[in-house]
Design a protein that fits this description.
alpha+beta, Aminopeptidase, 2 domains, eight-stranded mixed β-sheet, 8 helices
């Protein structure tokens, strides 16, 4: 992937910290420079090892500790590898030990002063997040305890945030989520109901979220998109998003999910 904007490793790591804050990385342990996430659910970056900072213990010892921790937590043992992962030998050590790579993901950003301002005839509602969680539950397949937990997190989240949604005949058919920290705005959960994809609803949601970010004085927007999602990559490219770095996961056979 060609990177359109050059970030220093320190800037990239700070962007990752913002993304984890935005995602609600509250269930985690600090272990010798690694952030050990253990929040069960579909979001892998919240239930994996994020090896951000300087590491001092032997890498094989740390991998074994993490393996035992996730087994005790009844979660798959997953590592997320980034350009600034520490120690630098970690990715190679995991590969040698048979931890396979999967779900390569691009991190993209755009300067909001230069991003395209989309004009859309589609009505997009901007709503508070607890109400958004309830409204989009069907589209995002949230129910029961998972929905209750999402609503509770929306109510207690300590930073500014907002949800966007589009309704058709009273049903939510597209949505997205905006999380703000300082002058950065993160876009998450941009989703369109499958029968309506390719009809401009995703673009309307992204445009509305970027407009809301500008209204709240953000200067930079960022997002994460899997490398094989060509439709999303094309959409975000049309708004001026460019790649700044990549990350990927490693796990053992049978735990790559």
């Amino acid at each position: 992937m060609s990177h359109g904007t050059k970030l220093t490793l320190a800037e990239a790591r700070r962007l990752e910290e913002r993304a984890l804050n935005a995602s609600g990385a509250f269930q985690s342990l600090a272990y010798d420079g690694w952030l050990i996430g253990y929040r069960a659910g579909p979001t892998k970056r919240l239930r994996c090892v994020n090896p951000f900072y300087a590491s001092t213990l032997p890498v094989d010892e740390k991998i074994e500790w993490c393996t035992r921790f996730y087994a005790a937590s009844k979660l798959p043992a997953i590592f997320r590898l980034l350009p600034f992962s520490r120690p630098r030998t970690l990715d190679a050590a995991l590969e040698r030990a048979g931890w396979g790579e999967f779900d390569r993901t691009f991190v993209q950003r755009t300067e909001l002063g230069h991003a395209r301002r989309a004009a859309s005839r589609v009505r997009v509602e901007i709503v508070d997040v607890p109400a958004w969680e309830q409204a989009v539950a069907g589209l995002l397949e949230l129910e029961g305890d998972a929905l209750a937990a999402a609503i509770a997190r929306g109510r207690s989240y300590p930073l500014p945030h907002a949800g966007a949604l589009i309704r058709r005949h009273g049903e939510v058919v597209a949505c997205g989520l905006l999380k703000l920290e300082g002058d950065h705005a993160g876009l998450f959960a941009v989703t369109t109901a499958e029968p309506l994809r390719g009809k401009g609803l995703g673009g309307a949601v992204v445009g509305a979220l970027l407009s809301e970010a500008r209204r709240r004085n953000a200067n930079v927007a960022y997002l994460q998109v899997t490398a094989d999602n060509e439709a999303a990559l094309a959409l975000y490219r049309s708004f001026g998003f460019v790649g700044v770095y990549e990350y990927w996961y490693r796990a053992r056979a049978g735990e790559q999910y």
